[in-house]
Amino acid sequence: MSSPTKRPHPASSQTAAAIIESAMAAMTDSASPALFDVTIICTTDDYQAAYWMERLGKGVCKSGAGNGGSSGATYPMVLAVSEDWSSPSGAGNGLGTLYAFEKACLVAKEKHGVDLASEMNEGKVSAALYHTAGKGTRLAPLPASENNNKPGVKLPVCHVLADGSFEPVTVLEAVVRQTGIYAASRRGRLSVFWGDQIFVPTAPFRYEPTHHVDIMCTLEEEPPTAKVWKDKGLEKYGVIAVSGNGDAAQVEKVDHATAVRMLKNLGDIGRVGPSLGSFSVSAKILEALCEEFKGELEAKDGKLDTDPHFWMPLTLPQDEYISLMSQKGVEDDESRAHHVRMTKMKDAFLAASPELGLFGAVDVGSNACWWDYGQLKLYVANNRKLAEDGTDADLLRRFFGVTARVMNSEVEGVAVDGSACVSSCRAKGGSVGAHAAVALVDAQEVEIGEDAIVVNCAAKKIVAGKGAVLYNLVSEAEEGIVANDGDVIVSVTDVDGSSMALKSNVDICGGKAWKKVLDGNRSSFEDVHKQNRDADVSTIEKKRKELFKKASSSFGI
Predict the structure, then answer these.
(1) ∠ CA 161-162-167 to the nearest 5 degrees?
(2) What count of other Cβ atoms lies within 10 Å of the Cβ of residue 531?
(3) Distances, alpha carbon 250 to alpha carbons 129, 243, 311, 333, 361, in Å
(4) Which partner for 145 in 177, 297, 465, 490 could form a disulfide, CB atoms 3.0-4.6 Å apart?
(5) Ramachandran angles phi, psi of 211, nearest 5°
(6) Helix H segments across 160-307?
(7) 166-170 and 154-160: which strand pairing?
């Protein structure tokens, strides 16, 4: 790899500051928010699909709200679909994307009389698909409290709903708001995002697509030498490499020497960086992929992911692809056959659609601000930033519209530490400790410890130890709700209003403890997940609100 002239690092320039300011302005513009014309949510079941169609349609994607591409009463449009695949392990995010898009096209036609594929082919609309299906093991036990509706996990800050009430914003609502800044650049394309990550780019987010596929990444400014590769730990990631002419390729978890060999077809490699996984595709290549995998989609059979089964065979030589897949335990003959299949599709496609390159990159900036809520430890760490000091914390508060440390609350008798963040709470006495984040809490008395997070809880008295997490808890008991330091306690509610507490600790990874029955629990996280399957989340949410209101009334709030 040769060493190109080094460009100034965007994060150290005024340009980066201007990009951040422009992005934040677009993300927080309540009068004219940046939104995709069509928002597609891929969920676990039909109950979740119905929930998100209503919540987003009346909330962040309500009619008349967006400016992502076209205008008119039809847009913005929300289409939520379930991944009813033949195998419990799912379709993979490759086939899953194609299947969700085709299902969304059917819903668009049925509910709105819109031929979505045609609208995209004509470059009239921008569309985004958010993958939210999955167990959320590493975030346990919070998804269990939402009855497996993982993207519905609440954050400790409230926003205003269509009826004027205040509720904690969900992770998915935050992601939809953030990613909308790319809508104006992507008419005629389908953008695909994961439902638990928010970021503020330090590289331009308005651009003219030059490739049928472009993938988001954090490109390093330094030339991709062996030292840079090692210092940045690039052998641990899926890495995007970009040549001088803008064409890109992907490799996964390889050292520098191996990457150089695998990427020789690209020629001069100018920049490299970890892939974020999120991508966009032109309407043309989306159609070609749907046609290529028509058999699998109709049979709802197979499991293919975008990185190993789409992007790598499309951008790597056959021998290098086989070598890489062998490290994953895939037989050479299987990899060879798949590469031949993808190469045949690629050659025919590029012959018919040469106006764009095949595979490119969209840099978000190596110093982009990044907030991930996909693991319990990250949920805790990033929510604590709401009550911290610093540039990153300031941006997070601005994104969520936090203009004061106490907002929309009646807590005159409560001693609230100046560093705490309190949103839509009512309490008559007690205290809230340093750097605590508390949202939608009703209580006569609160004793919220330092660094604690309390969301959507109602009880006569609420005691949360240092660093504890209390979530969706309602109690009419005289002793109220009590959590020790580091405790994580959530409530799992059923359609009949019955509920049970599920406990963990901030130091426990739900993925590692998935099959264990932790102290204080009657069931494992896995057992609760099975019990929650096909739960009517809309009905349960209404029941939860009724229980919250009843408890609050019982102690005069």
Answers:
(1) 15
(2) 15
(3) 22, 12, 7, 21, 10
(4) 490
(5) -135, 150
(6) 171-179, 226-231, 256-262, 283-292, 294-299, 306
(7) antiparallel
Rounded Cα–Cα distance for residues 321 and 314 (Å): 9
Strand pairing report for 437-448 and 426-432:
parallel
pLDDT at position 155, please?
98
Q: Which helix (H) or strand (E) holds 58?
A: helix 46-58
- Are 432 and 446 in contact by the 8 Å Cβ rule? The answer is yes
Burial 197-227 (b: 16+ CB within 10 A, else e): bbbbbbbbbeeebebbbbbbbbbbbbbbeee
What amino acid occupies position 344?
Answer: K
Convert the pLDDT of each residue in 521-546 to its tens digit: 999 999 999 999 999 999 999 999 99
DSSP string, 230-261: HHTTGGGSEEEEEETTS-EEEEES--HHHHHH
Express the helix, strand and coil content of the chain in percent, nearest 5 each.
35, 25, 40
Query: What pLDDT score was predicted for residue 162?
Result: 75
State the pairing for strand pair 499-505/481-483: unpaired
**End-to-end alpha-carbon separation of the chain, Å?**
67
250/237 Cα distance (integer angstroms): 10
211-217 and 269-282 strand pairing: antiparallel
What is the predicted pLDDT for the residue at 119?
97
Neighbours of 11 (CB within 10 A): 17
Phi, psi of 522 (to 5 degrees): -95, -20
pLDDT for 282-307, tens place per residue?
999 999 999 999 999 999 999 999 99
The confidence score (pLDDT) of residue 9 equals: 35
Q: What percent of the chain has pLDDT over 90?
A: 80
- Residue 504 CA to residue 488 CA, distance in Å, equals 5
Tell me: cis bond preceding 10? Omega within 30 of 0 counts: no
Confidence check: pLDDT of 70 > 70:
no
> pLDDT at position 383, please?
96
Rounded Cα distance between 549 and 556, Å, is 11
pTM score, whole prediction: 0.93
Structure tokens belonging to residue 366 = 């190596």
Structural tokens at position 450: 């330092």
CA quadruple 315, 321, 327, 328: dihedral sign: positive
What are the tokens at 4?
């190109």
Q: Which CA distances in Å does 231 have to 234, 239, 252, 368, 414? A: 8, 14, 17, 19, 49
Contact 379, 145 (CB under 8 A): no
Asked if residue 41 lies in contact with residue 79, where contact means CB atoms within 8 angstroms, the answer is yes
- CA dist., res. 212 & res. 209, Å (int): 8
Question: What's the rounded Cα separation, in Å, for the pair 154 and 451?
Answer: 17
